[in-house]
Amino acid sequence: MGALIATCVTALVVNANTSAVSILIPAISADTGTPTSTLQWAVTGYSLVGAAVIVTSGSLGDVFGRRKIFLWGILLFIASCALIALSQEGLGVILGRCIQGAAGATILACGMSLISASNTGKAQLRAVTLWGAASAVGAAAGPLVGGLLASTLGWQGLFWIDAAIAAACIPVTLAAVAESNDPTRPKSIDFAGTVLIALILAPLIFALTEGSAWGWLSWRTILCFAITIAATIGFVVVERRIAAPMLDLRLLTNKVLVGATLSILLGAGTINAIMYVVSLYFQDPSALGMDSFQAGLATLPVAAAAVVIAPLITPIVGRIGARTTITVGFLAMTVSLVVLAFVTEQWSYGMFVLPLVALAAGMGLQNGPCSSLSTSSVEPREVGAASGLSNMARYVGSAVMTAIVASVYAGVTARREDAGLSDSAALAAGFSWSSISMAIWCALGVALVVLVGRNSGKGRTGELEVAQATASISHTITPPAPASSRR
Fold first, then answer.
1. Quick one: 248-480 is in which CATH superfamily?
2. How far apart are CA 93 and CA 95, in angstroms?
3. Where are the membrane-spanning stretches (predicted)?
4. pLDDT tens across 31-64, in order?
């Protein structure tokens, strides 16, 4: 029970914190004087670091003890909350959020392993389901709670409260959670792979966000792309040689896994990117002019759609099949974004609700089956590695696509203002082109379904795997190690 309480509470806090930050960006910008275009790194930096750390933190738990690494993740989370809340400049907020990305990934990866190791059979299924429910509630409540606090106590309030709740989980973990590890796992940790993932993503995001301002053929843009290419080559070399690689490159020959992983990347990237743009547009005085609380309240239908669709995914897949469900999900997302591309300065909030709800529902339909397929399409001994690849894809999608959409939104808006359009018309154009860019890659997602194929999966997906896939809609999880490897 202690493990369940500690892991569910921390999962709720981490997911609430993650989903709330986009709503807080206008308030942070106004308080620190930092442009919102710069503060997008508070979102992309979090995901960038999370992508680099998610697999490594799970490996550290397997080797040195999951409870120990889980506790270090909580301490790091508390420290990052304090750094963000005390920051007087945007740089401190961005740095704190990058640290928080590492902390959040560690808490989620080791937390799932802890509750899986401390339960068996039906109890394990219930624990995973409750963990997923806590994550979903946190993700849904985050924007509302964050907006309420920003409108009352100030944007710093969210981070102080999150730090206090996380701190309360430390004595519970120490008193009631048993230590566990995986004695069969090689002791080496792929720190080089972690660094190389960061070196791949950071300059790529810089190039994508600043390329239009620097010039796509400028030396700075070319240098960023060159570093990304060099780091990618280095990553492949390291992963081929290390005893316990972050990514088993042989998995990339599995077309079902590759298709499911790319679909997860697109889905996670789209939902994070659209919520970032929505939070800015809804709160801009020249657009809908909401305050932080109103903007958080306005996102509730989107969060509700994701929560409601989650338990329906399994019966839907059972009736029409995984491939059809994923296709329907991507089509729903594409159509929703096409509708949003017609936004004008005359649109009221009510015009946004249905397409955003349909977008969230579509994301659930494609993400749930893809999450399950990513682990059922490999041999049992490869499940952990396949899950790690999927988890990393969620973070990568969020980091890269939020950066792209932030650049499109800011760039189009600025160019339309320079051309003489009103602020409201320019903002609507920025939102429209952001939606068009996302609609294009969601349409490409439909093509990925071809990789999934009719006979995807080497075995039947059990209840536990379904629960894990459903929980992953809200954020990311690492499945437990096989029972034979636990102590």
1. MFS general substrate transporter like domains (1.20.1250.20)
2. 5
3. 38-57, 69-88, 94-115, 127-151, 157-177, 189-208, 214-237, 257-281, 293-313, 325-343, 349-365, 395-412, 432-452
4. 999 998 899 999 999 999 998 898 888 888 888 8
